[in-house]
Fold this protein.
Amino acid sequence: GAGRHLWLGTSWKMTKTLAEARAYVSDLHREPVPDGVELFVLPPLTALHAVLDARPDGSVLRVGAQNGHWAQDGPVTGEVSMRQLRDAGAEIVEIGHSDRRAQFGETDQVVAAKVTAALDQHLVPLVCVGEPWSVRASGRAAAHVGEQVRTALSGVAPHDLARVLVTYEPVWAIGDSGRAAAPGHIVGVLDRVRSVVDELAPGVGLRGLLYGGSVTAANAGALLDLDDLDGLFVGRAAWTADGLAALLRTC
Ligand code: PEP
């Protein structure tokens, strides 16, 4: 929509070699980025530097990471701190994706610790929340997601909420299900998220509230028509540069 700030980003998850990462970034830059669109890519850490380096002069592409540890440094084998991410050139850090909650046991408390650590290091946290199908089926999606947001943001100073991105990603809509949530369902959950944020810090508001889960170039337009939505977070449909370019054309 005209005059609106829209976030459009993708996580590559555990895909892409360095050569594939560089080719994607160079192909992507053939597509103009409309005014007001905040475009971002979250590559695997192995490709962070290659992606930063492949951006032509004047690029508006923002780059970030898919995870970061809450501690500043120390004996945490295999992990990378928010400070190290910032130092390596990341601007955004995704926190609490459902893959990490399901496969690595991340709880809302872990997510909260990572959010404050990210803000301390001047990163933009992109906090993922969303209900599993069982919760959706019992009609408690908004309540569930509202409590996830309340816990995830519990350590954030009120004025710092304006630095936080939240993305609503119903677990059942992500990945192979291929089934995006209906606009009416999304609106109900986003309303709850906004009211929780307003309770935490009246009048401050988030930096942005996004939706993710089986977004494609075919359904993006209808989703972006939702007044409550500040953008889209995309997996598979943006794993090619052409895919992300097609999504850009819907903004
Ligand atoms: C995701 O995993 O965050 C996601 C949005 O995936 P997809 O678009 O592939 O459903």
The chain has a mean pLDDT of 96. Residues 11, 97, 169, 174-175, 212-215, 233-237 surround phosphoenolpyruvate (CB under 6 Å). The chain has one domain: 6-248. Residues 183-200 form the longest helix (18 residues).
